[in-house]
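Marked as duplicate of an earlier ticket. Keeping the data here for the record.
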Amino acid sequence: MENKIIAVDFDGTLCVDALPGIGEPRWRVIDYLNKQKKSGAKLILWTCRTGKKLQEAVVWCRERGITFDAINENLKEVIEFFGGDSRKILADEYIDDKAIPISSAADLAIGDENRKTVVLDKDLETMLISAMRYALGRRSYMVSLTVGFLIPLLPQLSDWCLNVMIRDLVEEYTLAARVTSYSPLGDPCDVAEWDRMKEALVAEREKRDA
């Protein structure tokens, strides 16, 4: 297709999940979609909402500048191309708070019995910190690759390494809250990965402090 196609979920993605109500806007995702729309991208709302709840979501999005080229169906040109409307939405990007990147799915498939244990010393932990710092702000597969690699290792990290990672991530989120000219955490798909990393770090810290 000539234009980029983006399929986006609603609850938990465009807004904080508060179904059957509508939560607070996730402005970074909204701003990203509006920017992509201006650049010629086609937007599809792909949500489990139906009927009145779906219409409420569409109106809510319109009030925040987002207009969709299709809602819970493929674009007309896609339907014509394939000769019908499949249940799967054809898109170049899928933005969903429940999405799992390929790297994470592959990691889950390994299984605990086959997972190699890495012996971590101070030098290797320093390299892991450097890898996370390198990935912060990147807009590429490197973000999901790095997060997918680091999360399984968190239980093996020293308190020093864990605390440095938490500090670095908190500083980046603080910067992201202040800056409006660009997104220090990258695109929405990257932000979702860093949200996952932050949750994993906090969970590991709380487990050790319990």
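See parent ticket for discussion. The two ends are 53 Å apart (CA to CA).
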